[in-house]
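Schema walk-through. Below, the input block comes first and the output block second. Nothing else is stored per chain. Lengths vary across the set, and this one has 279 residues.
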Amino acid sequence: MKFEGTENYVASDSLKLAVHAAMLLEKPLLIKGEPGTGKTMLAQELADSLGTELIQWHIKSTTKAQQGLYEYDAVSRLRDSQLGDEKVHDIANYIVKGKMWQSFDADVRPVLLIDEIDKADIEFPNDLLLELDKMEFHVYETQERVVAKQRPIVIITSNNEKELPDAFLRRCFFHYIDFPNQDEMQQIIEVHHPHIKQDLLTTALEVFFQLREQPGLKKKPSTSELLDWLKLLIVEDIDPDILRDKSNKGGLVPLFGALLKNEQDVSLLQKLAFMSKRR
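--- output ---
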């Protein structure tokens, strides 16, 4: 099985190689990169290309590793005991399978996405070492040993909000998704907006990359934000000449809210445009 990208996802050669290597080594693929560079989307497109199920485990700051394995629903058991339900005598009725257990149970090798692992507590990755390595775990309440029918393809994403433990990193194949250059970005845009006018595309890309290179920008606009902006430009039929006009709205491009996401960056560009105009 090889991943060659899909009609909806333009993958670089290095990313294709990383996916292939992780699958060959049967190790989790740890993907890092700027937000909006397609880390999460990779898992969906990989599952689609292989014709298999995608099981998604989205991590929050409160997520615990145990939740990915299973949870014991003691509240439901207490309620059923008060109601005199017979099923309270079998504790297995109150074991709720987590996303990892679901992936272990799959008849066809699935893709398991552990999304934004760096949002969780620092101990979260360490608590999954054995399960990701051996592909098995123990259910204490039922004394059951759960073993994966086949090793799922594991994609783990991180936005680098915190460092991951060395012991966890050793068990992964790592790949950093570089931000697309102008040619690669044009390929991505042609997938999502195949009928965009060439003049608008050329001008918009020029403006976008100039914006990203602006010193002092707190948050650089991402690929997904560029795609949103282009969608608005197409719908509103914005003339490319308006994008080139630096005097427009204090130096801000039309519909800038799709690209700039905080007031500091808006203020910075307005000040730079004002200073440039005075010169």
